[in-house]
Specification:
Blueprint: E1 6-8, E2 29-31, E3 53-55, E4 76-80, E5 111-115, H1 121-134, E6 142-147, H2 150-159, H3 161-164, E7 170-175, H4 188-195, E8 199-206, H5 211-219, E9 222-228, E10 247-251, E11 258-260, E12 274-278, E13 285-287, H6 293-301, E14 310-314, E15 321-324, E16 336-340, E17 347-350
Parallel strand pairs: 1-2, 2-3, 3-4, 4-5, 5-6, 6-7, 7-8, 8-9, 9-10, 10-12, 11-13, 12-14, 14-16, 15-17
């Protein structure tokens, strides 16, 4: 089939690619989605000079041959790598996950996805050079990527051509030192809903709220704050940053006492549809009251959270109630309220006393 241009072997149990595959000189699209038995690509992959789309999402590649860099017509590339949980297993794997310069000749890429084990030190060794090459991709419109260091991510935001000219319209960023959890405290279906959004930011194991992070939140439609060690309220990110937000998860922030406080609270989360709060041990209130009840009434008449449909609260032992009574006016869209393992909760709502603060 020397004229073949499109080959889809997705969801099969293929293990080894036949040598004849690499003689298909006109092949442009090669799909191996969810082919979990494929562990390696041979160096001959570099012979497919006209390749434009290579999709290995859902596979478990051990590494990527250096010859992949020869595919300089590439437009869309999705990669998924195996990563061991046991440190001793690294002795059986290739010492290099990818060549740090494998993207250097692929200037026309529009969509790039790289899925790695978050604790794979081989990725940590190569990622800085890869980020530098991604920053130069002017045609990039979609990016799925893990930045293990916050400073590296901030450098990308400052220097990326596609980010700054706003051609990067679809993204899924994981930022910070992530870990592989055997059992997640956030249900799988909720995490799946999060990743279905077009512009996602997961900020994990962080201890600061920089202006560049806020600028990314402004564009994001889904935000996942995972174990921020210092933040006390989402208001510290600047509430105006959340105007486009539709989906928000907050998990394991040990100092957080309120989701929203009085700082810049007017017009907060106008598009938010889902709010999930998980294992916030110091949480006292969802919305912290202002110094005067009348001011709180004015804030909630501004239709904060007017699009909220789902509110999930789990394992927040110091929470005593869910809503201030004044808030009920702006929750007309609420369809589902779930409160689990919150032993301190006595009632769903309460009145705000005059002069509360």
């Amino acid at each position: 089939m020397r004229e073949l241009r499109f080959l889809d072997l997705s969801d099969t149990k293929i293990r080894i690619l036949p040598s004849s595959l690499f003689k298909l000189s006109k092949l442009k699209v090669l799909l191996f989605r969810n082919c979990i038995c494929i562990e390696k690509l041979p160096p001959e992959i570099g012979d497919l000079k006209k390749m434009e789309v290579l999709d290995l999402s859902g596979t478990e590649l051990y590494d990527l041959p250096a010859e992949i860099s020869q595919l300089d017509h590439m437009k869309r590339m999705h990669l998924s790598f195996y990563g061991p949980d046991d440190e001793s297993e690294y002795e059986l794997l290739p010492c290099q996950l990818v060549s740090p310069s494998f993207l250097s000749e692929m200037e026309g890429i529009t969509s790039l996805s790289i899925s790695v084990h978050p604790e794979d030190h081989r990725w940590t060794e190569a990622v800085a050079c890869i980020v530098n090459d991604i920053s130069k991709l002017e045609m990039l419109s979609s990016l799925y990527f893990y930045f293990p260091e916050i400073e590296m991510f901030e450098n990308f935001i400052e220097t990326s051509s596609s980010w700054n000219n706003q051609s990067l319209s679809k993204f899924d960023f994981a930022v910070g030192q992530d870990v592989k959890r055997i059992v997640s405290r956030v249900p799988d279906d909720v995490e799946s809903l999060f990743s279905q959004h077009e512009r996602c930011l997961r900020y994990v194991n962080a201890d600061k709220t920089s202006s560049l992070i806020k600028s990314v939140i402004t564009r994001a439609t889904a935000f996942y704050l995972d174990h921020h060690t210092d933040i006390r309220s989402l208001s510290e990110f600047d509430i105006s940053s959340f105007r486009s937000m539709k989906f928000c998860i907050v998990r394991e922030c040990p100092k957080m006492q309120a989701i929203l406080d009085e700082k810049n609270a007017r017009g907060a989360f106008p598009c938010l549809e889902y709010l999930g709060i998980y294992f916030i041990w110091e949480l006292r209130q969802i919305w912290k009251p202002l110094s005067q009840a009348s001011r709180l009434n004015r804030i909630f008449k501004a239709k904060n959270f007017e699009a909220l449909k789902y509110l999930m609260i789990k394992t927040c032992p110091k929470l005593r109630f869910i809503f201030w009574e004044s808030m009920l006016l702006c929750l007309a869209s609420l369809e589902e309220l779930v409160v689990e393992d919150c032993e301190g909760v006595e009632k769903t709502h309460t009145c705000l006393p005059t002069g509360a603060g």
